[in-house]
Write a structure and sequence with these properties.
Layout lengths: L1 E3 L3 E5 L6 E8 L4 E8 L3 E5 L6 E9 L2 E9 L1
């Protein structure tokens, strides 16, 4: 897991095409943020309103699912 003291995270959507669905879940699996974007490029996601704790980021791109875990301090 990555520890992030920041108020935003940067997503690298290069290599994806079409619409991507972005979801952020808390430690118990509740959806706390979601969005859609047209793939390719870098996108910033504001996490300043989130409480400290562990989160799971999921990116759905076509038939692929990417995920990363991080801790917000």
């Amino acid at each position: 897991m990555t520890s992030l003291p920041t108020e935003r995270i940067t997503l690298d959507l290069n290599g994806t095409t079409g619409t991507v669905r972005i979801e952020l879940l808390d430690a118990v699996g509740r959806l706390v943020l979601q969005g859609r974007d047209q793939g390719a490029g870098y996108r910033n996601m504001d996490v300043s309103a989130l409480r400290t704790g562990a989160y799971l980021l999921r990116v759905h791109a076509g038939d692929r699912l990417y995920h990363a875990r991080f801790i917000k301090e």
